[in-house]
């Protein structure tokens, strides 16, 4: 997929390609990506002038960049692309070097059909994937002995912690990554249930320092994801910095020496490590939430949480129950139904499920060929996939105060609901008994929106039953529902989610004169832009409170957050200081604005997911800010936001 250019600048796969092959491959191309790549290659002004459709989208639930309106223009792009590729192959058209930021601005104009403001342009340029480590913070101008004093402990071994490692390595700072699991991968190390895969396209669910990994699937499966993270650790030489099977149990700030004492437990027993900085990349989904159902301990069969899947358990011929219709529960039903003798889905709340053609399919060969052989096509294709989860998607999340329909919150949200309902009807329309029980009351996006991994097809199977009567208790042999009906099972799967609102409360954290549990006692976890907390100096959170998905997602955001931390560290080094904690007034201002915005967002409507909110009823996982705001904020930390010493 990532065939390098040969010494003569001609992509290897293009060299041997005959005209018919080029024409066939180009026919399979995404036209928006092809048009931008072609313009980059040829500078053909006619490509710029083609009329575009600003509201183009693949479906209401899938945003896409503005696309060409007219079929004849799309055909023209393909024709010109074939012609240009033949010229590249024959050596008469040279592949241009990667663009500078300024050149990119002009190229991006054709792709986005608008002049991007400065910070957005920079974001998309970093995502474009032409720099080795776009979010690196060079520290060559800081004397090495000073850098040695700024050592760092990174907690976690998932996508966020690995990004921290990559950027710390690039900065030349000393660091140790401490992960409690025996291997890297974070979420994906543990998610081993049948069908576990990412529901953001693979091209988007990857980091800017390794954006063109040869993914096998459109939506990478669990094993691919773990391999990807380990590949990144190897490529960036992180392994010597990693301590696996080691759990961080406590953090204590030593205000005299201005460093963190980090309690860990691992193969060497209990230890206290020291670091000037701590970067917490502990993820949201690290601690399972086991639903407390009466009689659970009496079950004689196999009871398994979805995050503690035992792959050695043979499913074939087993009578299986799945409790829960969250993302994992929805994702596993299709694959489980192919193996189990019988499958019962216990549903308390129905879920909206999105149609995603090609969700479980490998990336087509033609697409691989195009990515490898059409210069810069893969870069634009990556932006096309990220665009769909960028700020544009965010508009469906805002409550329109004048909106009267109770099951949606605004016009975009209503269109999304119609599309999802239409898809559901296309699957279950002939089974009104099922359809009626599958339509959620809540507006789509008030909970995480899973992709259809064969769920609808599965519930139609003869050996699969959807049970919507509430569970009364788990018995020795299975499950009893409140109507007195007894079901017998060999295995019960608890797809009941995670403790997502604990954040750092899972460990003992003592800051500068205050314990975190006390500081957060009022209404749970909060952090300044999700990253820093007053009285907890030099502690940075990745994927922290209120940083989950208004837009884009952890791959990008954790990189932005690490860059913010590194830039702040550099400012401290340059000013001869050693510690910084955010001022309370800044933290309070930020939280007031966060709360004000969240109140007007879909996460605050009745029926929203338990996983977004904490025990105080406050949304603690999801964010309210647009990607462009987060990018602009994190790009340059303001030292005046902090108390420094
Ligand atoms: C089943 C599932 C599917 C998902 N699908 C998607 C998706 O499709 N798209 C998407 O954008 N996101 C998805 N997510 C969210 C996913 O968590 C993030 O995309 C991403 O993996 C977050 O990376 P992270 O490194 O921040 O956290 P994690 O991957 O959770 O890694 C955190 C790591 O920290 C370690 N850790 C925690 N506490 C300690 C401690 N005290 N000491 C040492 N180590 C510790 C954990 O063991 C873990 O390995 C999914 C999550 C789950 C659970």
Give an overview in words.
By secondary structure, this protein is of the alpha/beta class. The protein is built from 21 helices and 23 strands. The strands form seven sheets. It has a five-stranded parallel sheet, covered by helices on one side. It has a five-stranded parallel sheet with strand order 12-19-13-14-15, covered by helices on one side. A four-stranded mixed sheet has the order 10-9-8-20, with no helix packed on it. Strand 16 and strand 17 form a beta hairpin. Helix 6 crosses helix 7 (118-128). The longest helix is centred in the C-terminal third of the chain and has 21 residues, at 554-574. It is globular, with a radius of gyration of 26 Å. The model has no long low-confidence stretch (mean pLDDT 93). The site of flavin-adenine dinucleotide has 35 residues, from helix 9, helix 10, strand 8, helix 12 and helix 19.
């Amino acid at each position: 997929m990532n065939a390098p250019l040969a010494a003569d600048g001609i992509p290897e796969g293009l060299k041997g390609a005959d005209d018919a092959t080029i024409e066939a491959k180009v026919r399979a191309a995404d036209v928006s990506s092809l048009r931008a790549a072609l313009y980059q290659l040829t500078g053909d002004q006619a490509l710029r002038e083609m009329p575009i459709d600003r509201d183009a989208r693949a479906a209401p639930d899938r945003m896409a960049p503005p696309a060409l309106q007219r079929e004849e223009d799309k055909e023209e792009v393909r024709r010109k692309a074939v012609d240009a590729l033949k010229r590249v192959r024959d050596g008469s058209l040279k592949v241009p070097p990667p663009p500078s930021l300024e050149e990119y601005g002009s190229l991006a104009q054709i792709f986005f059909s608008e002049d991007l403001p400065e910070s957005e342009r920079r974001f998309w340029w970093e995502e474009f994937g032409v720099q080795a480590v776009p979010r690196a913070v060079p520290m060559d101008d800081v004397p090495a002995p000073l850098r040695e004093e700024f050592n760092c402990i990174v907690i976690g071994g998932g996508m966020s912690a690995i990004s921290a490692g990559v950027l710390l390595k690039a900065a030349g700072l000393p660091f140790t990554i401490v992960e409690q699991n025996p291997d890297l991968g974070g979420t994906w190390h543990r998610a081993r249930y049948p069908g576990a895969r990412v529901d953001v396209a693979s091209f988007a669910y990857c980091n800017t320092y390794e954006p063109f990994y040869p993914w096998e699937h459109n939506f990478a499966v669990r094993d691919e994801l773990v391999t990807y993270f380990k590949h990144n650790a190897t490529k960036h030489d992180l392994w010597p910095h990693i301590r696996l099977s080691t759990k961080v149990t406590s953090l204590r700030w030593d205000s005299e020496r201005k460093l963190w004492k980090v309690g860990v437990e691992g193969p060497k027993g209990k230890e206290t490590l020291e670091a000037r900085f701590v970067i917490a990349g502990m993820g949201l989904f690290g601690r399972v939430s086991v639903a407390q159902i009466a009689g659970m301990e009496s079950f004689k069969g196999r009871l398994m949480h979805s995050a503690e899947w035992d792959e050695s358990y043979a499913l074939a011929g087993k009578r299986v129950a799945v409790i829960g219709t969250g993302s994992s529960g929805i994702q596993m039903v299709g694959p489980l139904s192919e193996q189990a003798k019988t499958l019962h889905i216990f549903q308390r709340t129905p879920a909206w499920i999105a149609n995603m053609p090609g969700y479980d399919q490998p990336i087509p060969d033609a697409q691989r060929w195009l990515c490898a052989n059409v210069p810069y096509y893969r870069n634009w294709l990556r932006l096309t996939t990220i665009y769909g989860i960028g700020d544009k998607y965010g508009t469906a999340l805002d409550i329109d105060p004048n909106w009267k329909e109770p099951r949606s919150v605004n016009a975009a949200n209503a269109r999304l609901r119609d599309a999802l309902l239409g898809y559901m009807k296309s699957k279950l329309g002939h089974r009104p008994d099922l359809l009626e029980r599958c339509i959620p009351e809540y507006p789509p996006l008030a909970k995480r929106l899973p992709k259809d991994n064969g769920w609808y097809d599965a519930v139609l199977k003869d050996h699969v039953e959807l049970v919507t009567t509430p569970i009364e208790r788990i018995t020795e042999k299975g499950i009893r529902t409140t109507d007195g009906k007894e079901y017998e099972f060999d295995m019960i799967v608890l797809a009941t989610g995670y403790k997502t609102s604990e954040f750092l409360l899972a460990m003992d954290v003592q800051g500068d004169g205050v314990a975190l549990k006390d500081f957060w006692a009022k209404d749970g976890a909060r952090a300044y832009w999700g990253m820093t907390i007053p009285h907890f100096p030099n502690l940075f959170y990745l994927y922290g409170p209120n940083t989950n998905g208004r837009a884009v997602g952890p791959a990008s955001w954790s990189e932005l957050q690490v860059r913010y931390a590194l830039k702040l560290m550099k400012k401290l080094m340059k000013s001869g200081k050693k510690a910084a904690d955010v001022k309370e007034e800044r933290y309070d201002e930020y939280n007031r604005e966060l709360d004000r915005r969240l109140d007007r967002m879909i996460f605050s409507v009745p029926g929203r997911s338990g996983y977004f909110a904490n025990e105080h009823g406050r949304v603690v996982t999801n964010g309210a800010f647009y990607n462009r705001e987060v990018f602009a904020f994190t790009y340059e930390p303001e030292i005046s936001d902090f108390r420094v010493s």
